[in-house]
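Same chain as my last thread, 371 residues:
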Amino acid sequence: MLQVNIQTADLLKGVNLTISVSEKKSNLPVLSHFLLEAKDNTLIITASDLDTTIREICPAEVYSPGRLTVPAKAFHSFVRSINSESLNLKETDQFKLHCEAGTYKTELFGLSADSFPQRINEEEIVCSLIPSRDLIDAIDKVIFSVSARDERFNLSGIYMTLESTEEKKSLRLVSSDSKRLNVSTISDSIANFELERGVIMSKKGVQELRRLAETVDVIEFGVTFASVIAKTPTSLLELHLLEGGFPDYRVVVPQNYDKSAKLNRAAFLQCLKKVGHISDDSSRVGKFEFSRDSLHISLTNSSVGYSEDSFEIEYDGETLVTGFNLSYYVEALSSLKSDSVSLAFTDPKLSFLLTGQDDPGYFGIVMTSSL
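reply #2:
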């Protein structure tokens, strides 16, 4: 039966990386548990909600190998409360885990490890190395526009596809909630990446992928027929793919724009946030008023009041007025790095194309809103 001694810092890192995957409420009690496996001088912590599975390897002194599950929330709270350098974990009868750190002792009631979801066979996975910063940047530019509507299941994740030309490959991430579309691209660091078809990853899974990428400079990344895999020296993450087909996003991308405005991103974002201080969930539609070299932004909330502001832009077209959703632009602009952004359009009553001068491979399409 399992018995180990482990450094508290190592165990805390492991449970911190895995706790968010464990299912809080489920018809399967084992999904709210960690799977603990002691072998080969390591303690392996695994959490799963069936759609997302993460495994973290922690160095440990293993006195006796073994496997069992423990309640994830209680175990995480216990480890966080420890102030000693190390602690002892020992399995007793009926899948109970005795935990001891200095004078502090507790016992957790676990379940048989056999009831925990099966782990993937990582030996069958072919992965490529991708700089974590590139992957994080690409995720940040699309994750906020994933659809939250249950009836749009095929829009409830991030679509990933590989675009290939004679010159290079580009890994493209796409999200849409039908009111806006955001596309980001990784080009320079995926020469060896393979993807036979476009796949859809769940939002929760992509959030876990981003969390894992933050722990390393380079991440191993690959796709099997049913899942996306990410690996670091101590972690393994599996994201089961969502079923269904993602709409062909390219058909909604206008090919020709005859009008455009160039804006300072920081000034644009600051203006939106100032005007938006009176907004709430029921009132987030504001007004854009373009005039020569100026953009005037205003918003009215019938229960709170009125707010307006303006700033200088590069625009020499005709005066026009259109409606916009405040959060759509705040979220998109917050994800970009460019000092200068562009809003291009043909019919301002339909949509705007947002691009950033220093954000190559990104574009966003935002549908206008009725005033």
